[in-house]
Structure prediction request, 506 residues.
Amino acid sequence: MNPLDMKVVDFNAEYLGIPRLSLMENAGRALAYEISNINSNITIGAKVVIFTGSGGNGGDGFVAARHLLNMGFKVKLVLLTHPSKINSKESIQNWYVLENMRPYLSDLEIEICMDSSQIDSGLLDSDENILVDAILGTGIKGDIREPFRSAICLINNSNSPVVSVDVPSGMDPLNGEINDISVEAEYTVSFHRAKTGLKESSSDTIGKLIVCDIGIPKEAEIFLGAGDLLRLNSRDSNAHKGANGRLLIVGGSKEYTGAPALAGLAAISAGADLVTIICPDSAAIPIKSYSPDLIVKNLPGDYINSEMMETILELSKKVDCVLVGCGAGDKEETKIALNVLAKKLGELKKPLVMDADALKLVDKELVKNQDNLIITPHMGEFKAFFQEESPIILFDIKEKISAFQSISQQINGTILLKGKLDMIFNGKKFRLNKTGSPGMTVGGTGDCLAGLVAALYSQDHSAWDSACLGAFINGRAGELAQNKWGNNFTASKMIEFLSEAMKYDF
Prediction:
């Protein structure tokens, strides 16, 4: 598991109701147990020296220190920063626990070393010590600075057994590379799942790998949660207009003007820099009236038709993503046009989101090989697109997932199946989303979702992440709208909460 995925799962477990403080407690206890059992020569009463940094890795070390003391070990904890610099609230709490215990425990020593001059062999009483590396973990960036570098050198020059927490400090947890210097561990104790870098790294660096269960349920990986918001791309302060997403929406018709407007407004609220709606003349004025933030380009006709294709394709080449279908209607001329458009966009390898009427009109065979395709159907649209005539009525969630996963393998794209429980598939993996509220049955919330997903896709998120994040954020906006207005709100009111739904206090 890569470091970002692990961080996401960590916060998703909390979102499910398991406090991160509990996970740190479980990790520290598991670490202490493994330390006490690493070697038959290690006996109760031996001294364990734990080097800790300022992050969550250090917090695991604090907890392990407490449990080792309870087991009868002597512990020296070497904090390589000022206590005020500890940056994880769970780590801070566990630091205070040790500080409160300190006056009453002769077997606990705490050394605070903020300078390399304080790092010397005097920190290690003898070669009988067990050394624990809880310094940097998965948060490493760039070269190793002092006093961490000196601490790593001291550890490596010792003859004592060395246990690293999660990953050896100095090793890139993503790819196993060592840019500068790294702890050379005899044992590496990782949590939940081994980090990807541990599989790539030399055994000389990680030693024996031990992976401990710390109580993170598998549902934290299956259900979308607040942790997934960590996948949102940050904005470059030097970016220019359009750098954060250019989106083209192809939709609207004489009868349906609200759908493309809602999709466009949702896309803007989700951070897309420029949103252009291309529509028939008959829909242009109503769509323009929704907001001055929307760029509307109208072409002759009451419905999307083949004569518009040349202009649409030229505009498509200038944007990052195209959303097709919102309010397009079901006329034969529109069906012909959208099939041509979908095929041409596939040839251009243009990121494409299809929703609503496009799912009823576009032939699946034309887009089945497009891995840059996202479709966002409700159940009726899903059955129409895949031409599933028989009802799919399964009450067991695992059977339902299996059935939809099997059907989804007919295309290479990503499917976001909307419902009380959203399901996201791509033929290889799936995620589930529980966010949402009863008020979201009002018309237009699906258009908001399509615009949101397309906006994310236009901002360099993968098709998979765009669909997953879109489902979670849209549902969360619905929950926030319900908190303010109850179940009686409109899709345009829900859009007001999209920006807030994309935030989380990590």
In short: The domain at 226-230+242-501 is CATH 3.40.1190.20 (UDP-N-acetylmuramoyl-L-alanine:D-glutamate ligase).
